[in-house]
Write a structure and sequence with these properties.
Layout (H helix, E strand, L loop, with lengths): L1 E6 L4 H13 L3 E4 L10 H14 L4 E6 L3 H7 L7 E3 L3 H11 L3 E5 L5 H13 L7 H9 L6 H7 L1
Parallel strand pairs: 1-2, 1-3, 3-5, 4-5
Helix pairs in contact: 2-3, 4-5
Amino acid sequence: MRIAIASDHAAIDLKAELREYLRGLGHEVLDLGPETADRVDYPDFGYKLAEIVASGSAERGVALCGSGIGISIAVNRHPELRCALVSEPLSAALAREHNDANAVALGARLTGIDMAKACLDAFLSTEFGGGRHGPRVEKLSNPQITSQNTKESVA
């Protein structure tokens, strides 16, 4: 699988470890930066990751910052991205199974390397469940789509 990975300065070490871990599993990894621990703005790298995944240049994305929160917000600004902030494997698996997440975010200050690897393993090995989740996921990229139930509850 081709995976894009990006971080801010707070997650540069975690990014390097996860990049090598993913390569060791046989994945092709696109490291989108940064290359040093000099201060950078996480939105810049989140937007870059979102564009790469949305374009199809990578199948999945891994977004990292100190908490994982800021970069996940940046990635999710793109309508084609569904980036889930996760802290343990179950949420990573459910993000794929129920939400067809195409990116995952982790916080370097909150998640240790072993837990981060376990999250990536779950995220990358879980398939989207489809079924009842399909129409819901479609609405994530198309908020103008509403169900009859939503229209009735607003009226």
